[in-house]
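Page 47, continued from p. 46.
Same chain as before, 181 aa.
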Amino acid sequence: MLISADDEGTPADTAAVRDPVGVLASAHLASPAEQVLLDWLEAHIALQTRLDHDGVARWAYRSVYELVAAHGRWFTPAVLPAQVRPLPERQCFANAAATEREHPHLVYTEGFAVAAGSPVPTAHAWCTDADGQVIDPTWPELGGSAYLGIVLPSNLRPRTHCSWGVLEAPDSLYPLLRDRL
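Result:
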């Protein structure tokens, strides 16, 4: 976690909470793709700030972008290992969940990624190994050039086929925004 909190979940550095993208940028030397993702994340957080309304005033985070900026970390792109099979494109959430079930040493991770050769970040899911290497069955050939995400606690990870991510579905996202991860 990039921003530490006390036992009650209160952020240790309130300036970091107000500028979560600055924390991410200063914690890591950004590649061009990572800089694209940081700029995109910062733009979304700025837009959310301008559109702020009382409905989320008491929530820990106003958006999934703030949540990922506060709790996310960078993961290192890697070649898909031979023992992990490539899975269909555009099904990243189901693919990552299935890969975690087939390979228990890998963990389901959600956040945002930039596909190699693309200038556009997107919500994405992949698996990571113990070294923080990305194991991405959805983009085995295309690959990703930047991955920023959260290894979700085991109780939040999908157990069955899922078309939506935990950080996308309102029934799983809103409690995280309201009550913290």
